[in-house]
Design brief:
Blueprint: E1 7-12, H1 15-18, E2 27-32, H2 53-74, E3 75-85, H3 90-101, E4 106-112, E5 130-136, E6 147-148, E7 159-160, E8 166-171, E9 191-193, E10 200-201, E11 209-211, H4 227-232, E12 237-244, E13 247-257, E14 266-267, E15 271-272, H5 274-277, H6 280-290, H7 301-308, E16 316-319, H8 326-338, E17 343-348, H9 358-361, H10 367-382, E18 386-388
Parallel strand pairs: 1-17, 1-18, 2-3, 2-16, 4-15, 16-17
Antiparallel strand pairs: 3-5, 4-5, 6-14, 7-8, 8-13, 9-10, 9-11, 12-13
Amino acid sequence: MEWPEQGNAFVAGDNLDVLPLLAPGSVDLVYIDPPYNTGNDFAYRDDIRGVDGATRHQAWVAMMRPRLVAACAVLAPTGAIFVSIDDNEAAHLRLLMDDVFGEAQLLAQVVVNLNPKGRQLGKGFATSHEYLLAYARDASACVLDASTTETVNERDFPLTDVDGRRFRHLPLRNTNKKFNPATARTLHFPVWGDPASGAVRTLPFDGAVEIAPVFGDGTPAVWRWSRPRIDERPDDLVCRTIKGVRGERVDVFQKDWLHRDGGRRKKLRTIWLSDEIGSTDSAVVELKEIVGHVFESPKPTGLVRRILGTMPDDARVLDFFAGSGTTGHAVALANAEDGGRRTCLSVNSTEPTRVGSNAQLAGYATVADITRARLAAVDALLGCGFVDLTPA
């Protein structure tokens, strides 16, 4: 099967039939939102209806295993896979992915706050989260960048330079006591600074005092920068007189700029809040605006866009449990925003929609019809491109 040249492509059918048609190593990023084993029958060829408890868990794993093995085969060595799941199968999925991809390939188990109010039906706790398991095909080669520009707060940079750039002061000394003259001896050396002008150099100059790196208690420390780096970036350092627990002393600080090297990024936390990525409620509204209220619990595009942001902007993206088509929609939105060249292949089953459901009443005979309609509507709205590759 040929990968789409631009935008979105769609295939209706069993993913276990479609995945072998893709070339090995042809996919950069996989995101899937598989059935959660919450009591509903599975819409795949594996016959696991009418089973309960441990047997049902085993059947769910048996359904997922060949699909994850096939996904691993099509994933590039530099690629990654993200899988959404809830408490029903989180433990089993973790063990299964450890087995298929390898324990060493685990990148993160993220808690995703998709229902901030919590589920109020039934007994017990009001569950407000799901999980997102992220694995690399090969952690040593994976190009995933687990950082984002979204969570950088300008208020963390209270100072303004003469040219208008925002920054903050960070101690040049390493504040981690694991790094000290015994463990990092090449980083323990004196510098010279003038607290009046703020200038810092590695050699003495008029008006400067000698400054050695020390911890707050006066014990020897080390710098975070080497001599050559200090010589290369003296304007990014400043000498100041500060009040410590032992009285006044002169110390050196780095000017940490808000906008640096094309844009500051911050490491992603492993708890993703609905305020940041959207919720199930916002996802329902999002889908309703495109094709109507035809899916009970879609994922918000913000969740998938955060995942997309960890990978290059020309990533080949695969979703073989495409559901309402959130992944393809998110790819189109991301490309529209940053000019990226991501492409996406969505695969969904031809399971009939539930009798009497909003989807059936709206004229969608199968869940694949919903996916197809959403991706076509997104193309009409954004001009991102869409092709249906389903065999006639």
